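Much of what follows relies on a compact textual record of a protein's fold. Think of the row as the fold of the chain written in a discrete alphabet. An example makes this concrete, so a full record is given next.


***
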Amino acid sequence: MPAAPANVAVIRQVLAGLADDLAIDAAQCADMKIAVTEACTNVVVHAYPGGQGPLETTMTVLAGSLVVSVRDRGTDFKPTLGLAPKPEAPGDAALGFGLSLIAALSDEFAIRAGASGTEIQMLFALRGSATADPSVPATDFATVFTDTSQLTRDEPAPPGGIALALSPGVPVAGVLGRLVSLLAARADFSIDRLSDAQLVSDALATHAPARTADGLVRVGVTECEGGFDLRVGPLASGGANALLADTTLPGVGPLLERLSDEVASEPVSGAGTPAESLRVRLTREPTGGQLQV
């Protein structure tokens, strides 16, 4: 997503949705959100002086731990590199207050830098969650950070706007629901319209995984005056109409069409095989959706 102050809240909500599904206790979730907020704020403030660029975050669930990576593609923010030692106190001068706060709130953290940007990685040992397993050996965090590093993969820069990708097994409903609720609040939706947006989100989260082209649930977000578009795809050929059929309720009809302002099936280029996406528009003044193919 664009490295803008308002988008830090998006990442906090995605993290909260994931934490809900993992049954992470409230105190640890609060610490995670503070640490991740600090890492994202570093990107917003320092990565692109006088310019714009992306803020990219990955969250990887392991046995008993969660690894969060926050990276930029700038060249100006170059903190101390490598696997960072735990600070003596949150104000450790060797790291600066922000990075030492991240180190204090996480169980392990690392900083990497390269020609394509800087990355902060944080590992949180999950306490009292569904994934915590005392029989699992202690995590080799150095190996974990190498395996989950965005800089190691060095994938191409993402397109503009907010883009969310969820691997199989990730709780789509909790994560997407939190994101959609935040977008609706930013667009000043009424309580009734927020309820509509949540129903749309739940319907997409329930049925989209079965219609994707490659198993990944990808959702692109474009905010507009008074609302936003959700683009789900790439879907397998015919997946948009199938997804609409999946969400049809007896006596109600296609839920997505009834609650959305516009529903459109759109081709996806460069997918290798025939693919499409489903675009759903939600605004604070509903007009009733019409399917466009």
